[in-house]
Amino acid sequence: MNPIKNLKTLILDILFPPLCLNCRTHMEKEEIKTGMCWKCLNGIVLNSSFFCPICKARLPDGIKTCHKDSKYLLAAAANYNNDAVKNIIWHFKYRGWQKLQNILGNFLTGYLQTLNTNFEAFIIVPVPLHKNKQRKRGFNQAEILGKIAAEHLNIVMEARCLKRIKNTATQAELKNHELRKKNVANCFFVENPDLIRDKNILLIDDVFTSGSTINEAVNVLRANGAKKIIAFVAAKAS
Prior knowledge:
Blueprint (H helix, E strand, L loop, with lengths): L2 H13 L13 H4 L5 H5 L7 E2 L6 E2 L13 E7 L3 H12 L6 H15 L6 E5 L4 H7 L3 H13 L8 E3 L12 H8 L3 E3 L9 E9 L3 H12 L5 E8 L2
Parallel strand pairs: 3-8, 4-7, 7-8
Antiparallel strand pairs: 1-2, 1-3, 5-6
Helix pairs in contact: 5-7
């Protein structure tokens, strides 16, 4: 432990008490470890079912009862319209607050426990970033979440097969669905088809909004022989 660094941190905490990243109230000592106050955290309700990726309808038994021709199921731990959820993901993804991965990990594992589904026959594939964007950000949030899910489920994560070959614009900056779809068109490539051929896949990402990115990834995985695909995200938009 560096005593000078610890003293500096203590002085900063006294002069500028840490605030909850969501409601901006002062946090207690134990809350500081997470970055969010207990009140905001306790206000987050986890989902307990699969969803249709087209109409977002709940699919309690994981059976396609609405859009039966959809190419995958959607599994979403929480709802992105919750401000606390949105702030956690934003600070984790764009501000690099790595400690928030513990909260997101709890989302994922808590949600998985409600599904009562056997994932033993699946492998995990994280949605990749372009190498330039990952180098700038320093990490791939989907890969971090994928490692948490893989450890919890005791299954393999395969990050070597799906590659992003176009350095696309950030989807969140594009409000129009058609622009988002065009932005990610042909942006993925399967480098090692043997790793996914005839495999069931949990495709991991942080957020599902318009579905354009996940849809593009699913199409490429399907074209290279993947079987059942479940898109698994920390949160989905309504």
